[in-house]
Design goal:
The protein is an alpha/beta fold. The chain has 3 helices and 11 strands. It binds manganese (II) ion.
């Protein structure tokens, strides 16, 4: 199964457009959004092309293929204008026998078992880290990358996570243990 995983669009129509181009190119089974969809948030500067209404219009036609969890910038008013659920704290996907625990990253993490994967956004910094038992995977940010990281999304396919820039070039990867 192929998944496209992305986070922290923060209302940028410019970068959402590039994400959708990647979505067209990659043809994943689902687009997993790890939160912070529309609002820029008071801690961030406005991203390029800040236009939340355009982001809504871009994501609406693909709503049935989107799986989304709540970011710390997503509230009830965002749910009123987005056609897929955005207020769930987490989602668990099972892919190739692995549990992928998807959450934004600002909430406490439940106990996870050896061989589980924690997928997060929130920090805007791509990361892959072995933690107590599980592996912490951060897909970085689509629109406001931090610590010099590229504007990013991730692909999961056949047991491998690929971190990619918006042009689709993989700059990091992690192969899951069988
Ligand atoms: Mn964010």
């Amino acid at each position: 199964m192929k998944l496209l995983i992305a986070s922290d669009i923060h209302g940028s129509a410019t970068w959402c457009e590039k994400l959708l181009a990647a979505y067209e190119r990659e043809r994943p089974k689902k687009l997993v959004l790890l939160g912070d969809i529309l609002y820029h948030g008071p801690r961030n500067d406005l991203p390029d092309g800040y236009a939340p209404k355009q982001v809504i219009a871009m994501l609406t036609p693909i709503a049935k293929d989107v799986l989304c969890v709540q970011g710390n910038c997503d509230t009830e008013v965002d749910q009123m204008v987005l056609p897929f659920p955005v207020l769930n704290g987490y989602a668990v996907l099972f892919a190739d026998g692995k549990a992928l625990y998807c959450t934004h990253g600002h909430r406490p993490v439940p106990p996870l078992a050896e061989g589980d994967y924690l997928l997060c956004g929130h920090t805007h910094v791509p990361k892959c880290e072995k933690r107590e038992g599980y592996v912490y995977i951060n897909c970085g940010s689509v629109s406001i990358p931090k610590e010099g990281s590229p504007h990013s999304y991730m692909i999961y396919e056949d047991g491998i996570f690929y971190w990619k820039n918006m042009e689709g070039e993989a700059y990091m990867q992690y192969e899951c243990k069988k």
